[in-house]
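User: I've been trying to design a sequence by hand for this structure and keep getting stuck. Would you show me what you'd pick, starting by listing the structure so we're on the same page?

Assistant: Good idea, let's start from the same input. This is the structure you sent:
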């Protein structure tokens, strides 16, 4: 149901992936990273990080 089918539009899929790559690269150029930990300046998976953002 959710995997690649036989009649998938490979060109459309590859175009979509290219748009995602371009967006990701531009976002990283502007913000310096795509990782939450680096963008926020702390790890929100730790108690200290959770306290900081709550």
């Amino acid at each position: 149901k959710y995997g690649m089918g036989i009649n998938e539009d490979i060109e459309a899929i590859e175009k979509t992936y290219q748009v995602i790559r371009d967006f990701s690269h531009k976002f990283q150029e502007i913000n310096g990273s795509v990782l939450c930990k680096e963008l926020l300046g702390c790890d929100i998976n730790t108690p200290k990080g959770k306290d900081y953002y709550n």
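That's my pick for every position. To get oriented when you compare it with your attempt: The chain has one domain: 10-53. The first helix runs from residue 10 to 31.
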